[in-house]
Amino acid sequence: MHPWLAQRTTAFESSGIRKVFDLAAKLKDPINLSIGQPDFDVPDEIKTAATDAINEGKNAYSPTQGIGPLREKLKATIDSQFAHADRDVFVSSGTSGGLMLAMLSMINPGDEVIYLDPYFVMYPALLEMCGGVSVRVDSSPDFRLNPDKIAAAITPRTKMILVNSPANPTGITASVEELEAVAKLAAEKNIALLSDEIYSRFMFDEDFVSPAKFNDQTIVIDGFSKSHAMTGWRVGYVHGPSEVIAAMLKVQQYSFVCSPQPAQWGALRAMEVNLSGHIDDYRRKRDLICEGLADYYEFAKPGGAFYLYPKAPIDSGSKFVEMAIERGLLIIPGKIFSQHDSHFRISFAASDETLHRGIKVLQDLARELK
């Protein structure tokens, strides 16, 4: 280890997903079912709003909390949903930025944070940067949010419960009953509840429900990256109790400073864009890949996001992914998201042609491994 490096940099590895992305760039005509972003482009009206902002000279720093019109529109929407007496909102540099600010503002060394395994890869890394302790609750085999398992994991050092529905990497959506039980548990125990809702618009079988409906102290993180294909624009938002939001803003002032101003004007326009056609298309893609793999793999049918998380037909999910990559199919090993090396993640945010090619490779592999 280089003598100048901080110890915190050794607590976690570089993202395994990024390694697959790097591999994709080297393959000729890969079947790419690895990337976690929509395959449609940013809607034209959003692009126009952002380029208009650039051409009008709106290129300086914005206020740390975000441009006034966007923040006001977000606040009005959030207030209409929850009507909480004390709920503020600010614009973050993507939802990843929002997550980092939440951890830096709330987690002290030794504080425990409960979340489900499998999990989004950033959760343990961010916690370890802050000196927090990951308490991973095994959600297999159905990957559901089980309130009893969450309750059993609580200790006197528990500071936060982190929920993600629809979930990455499984696509599983928590039921209203599950969310309500966990929200009320957090309130009863005076534990912070952080809800990562970046896939909230990708619901295929039912309406989205936030745990903030049942716990007015819930901190919610959401954004425009996945819903509007704006992953590179870095516009997220966070809402929750005003004192917590103020602390997060203070940290943002000395770190991210603000989300890019032209992108915020694009996000303001994005709030008026109808996404129903895209959601219908992803529901169809979900059904296409589930039907294509149902006779070959074990999996829980996703109710949201754009991921499928099948069990590998051999003992090692990582070894299976290597076999798939040898055939030009890029998928993600489950051990990146889990303490278990038993599954793999497919992103069905891809063209139908790519999905059909990927399904064929996976069907052939399953037949050969029987």
Automatic annotation (TrEMBL):
Stored Gene3D superfamilies: Type I PLP-dependent aspartate aminotransferase-like (Major domain)
One GO BP annotation is: amino acid metabolic process
Q: What is the lineage of its organism?
A: Bacteria, Pseudomonadati, Planctomycetota, Planctomycetia, Pirellulales
| Protein name, entry field | Aminotransferase
Give the residues annotated as coiled coil.
none
Which family, according to the similarity comment? Belongs to the class-I pyridoxal-phosphate-dependent aminotransferase family.
> Which cofactor is essential here?
pyridoxal 5'-phosphate
Q: Which PROSITE patterns match?
A: AA_TRANSFER_CLASS_1
The Gene Ontology terms for molecular function here are:
pyridoxal phosphate binding; transaminase activity
Keyword Transcription in record:
no
Instruction: Name all Aminotransferase class I/classII large domain ranges.
Output: 29-361
Q: What EC number(s) are associated with this protein in UniProt?
A: 2.6.1.-
The organism's superkingdom is given as Bacteria
Q: Which UniProt keywords apply?
A: Aminotransferase, Pyridoxal phosphate, Transferase
Q: Which CDD domains match?
A: AAT_like
